[in-house]
Here is the input.
Amino acid sequence: MNTTRLASNIVSALTQVVAVGGILFVQYIYLARVLGLEQLGGWALVIAITGTVQIGQIGMSTTPVRYVSKYRARGEIDRSVLMARTAILSVAFLMALLLPVSYPLIVLLLEYVVDSAVLDDLLAITPIVLCGTWFLAVGTTLQSCLDGCQRIDLRAKSVVAGSLVQLISVLILVPLYGLMGVAFAYLLSTLITVGVALYYCGGAVGLFSGSVNGVWSTSSFREMLSYGAQLQLIGITLTLFLPLTKLLISNFGSLAAVGVFELANRVIIQVRQLIVDANRTLVPVFSATAEETAHSVRTLYEESYSLNFALSFPVFAGLAVFSPQISQLFTGEVNSTFVIYSFIICSGCLVNSLSNAAYFANLGLGRPRANVIGHTTIAIVNVVAGIWFGRLLGGIGVVIAYSASLTIGAILVIAMYCSHENRGLKTLLPIESLALALACIVSAGLVLTLYQSGPSLLVTTQVGFVVATLTLLWVHPLREQTVSKLRTSKYYR
Here is the structure.
């Protein structure tokens, strides 16, 4: 295993998430203030619904990660290039067929769900967003090819470039065209992302190499299809997950509640990407390591899980603890709905984050069955519990179901991985991290109890949380191990 490349990839992934997260926070603060929660909720609904069309690319956008890395590890560079070309062309063609067909269905769904003055604006931006969805699907496939080459640094550059263009376009176009300006900014950002990723794929992947015969291979398509078919159910559940949640919130709550959920969930999910993308870099590493030794795979998993556990608690507890200030930043006030939504979502994302090591190990090792079962469970629980709790509690009931589904699905993925590897469940609670986890849980509970009691008690609790977690992280044995590995990164040097 090339630890220097791995460390560099992790740094690149984290840099990407921080940069994109900062850009998105500025953008969402601006949109919440300029457009208002109702229009922001409408925009979130359109993006979510149009994104469901990506179900039709049958998992092909993610397969290059495994197959490009697999054949490069074997020294079959030409085969890896042909795999990349086949995946890109397949996704582009399939999406081009599906988008026109999906348009009237999306219009009907919006007319059924949305009953407000915003509807006409949402219908007007739908064709533009659909065009952006095509570029997004192609861009994701190109980025998967870069991931397969373990060039996360190049992937990060394409993502950040698109995000910067979107922010600048939003600041210029929204004052002139309102919601339509957001749609044009989205389209332009996806176009730039594809252009930058395509440029980097030319060098890193050898996409335009004249020594490789053919631009599309039937045998490569079939090989990726057999793997992609297993991932397709994951793709379906991932694609439908947020749209269905937002539709349920809109139905049992309001479009403004969708806006609050979008803000709270966006903040949490974007920060969560710090952990997810660091783990995602391990997919090609697991794939390449599987060609060598099982012992290295086991060690890689154990280190990844321990680091996930130690980081997930302070990250998600911190988001919950400081949710009153985050609410103030986005909405101009301490919005109780925002704070409660944040606590609920953080609890589900915390448990879900602990499954990252098992999830990405399954993908890299070519055995996604447990992931499929986990995602299927998440989808079923989210819809069934969302309808049930939504009828009982309104919008907040849907959010509770959303969080519960993330928790249950993650537990299944972890349990199935441990069973396959004959690992005892007692290893899921690292002794060195228990004090840290307890401090985070107690701090979050106190803030939830005290956030309406006055600023002095709230700030005192928050300061106590920061001091306790930083102290426990400093003395944690994983700190020195992580710093040692990052020092091998080219970014450190």
